[in-house]
Design a protein that fits this description.
It comes from Thermomonas brevis. The protein is of the alpha+beta class. 26% of the residues lie in helices and 27% in strands. A four-stranded antiparallel beta sheet has the order 2-3-1-4, covered by helices on one side. A hairpin with a 4-residue loop joins strand 2 and strand 3.
């Protein structure tokens, strides 16, 4: 195996840097109705419509989305609701 012996991070261990440029927010959301890769793509597209440079990580097993970009939690929740993925805020930074 090419990566044998490397301790690579899993989706559960990914974190974003705590310091962000001004105007960048990080939100952790509980998102309903996600069950497949189509859902991951739809959620990512919805958040990147708010900020094309947004970093979006989706954990289907936990029903969580961590996103960092030039939008606030309310905008992220509204964008996901428009795509039929109701979301609630777990935490926010920035």
């Amino acid at each position: 195996m090419l990566f044998s012996g490397l301790d690579l991070p899993t989706i559960e261990s990914w974190t974003l840097a705590a310091s962000h440029p001004s105007g960048i927010h990080t939100v952790l959301l509980n998102v309903e109705n996600m069950s497949c890769q189509h859902c991951v793509n739809a959620v990512t597209r919805a958040l990147r419509a708010l900020d094309p440079e947004a970093a979006v990580q989706v954990d289907l097993a936990k029903g969580e989305v961590r996103a960092s970009g030039g939008f606030d939690a309310e905008a992220a929740i509204a964008a996901l609701a428009d795509e039929d993925y109701p979301a609630t805020l777990t935490s926010a930074e920035g």
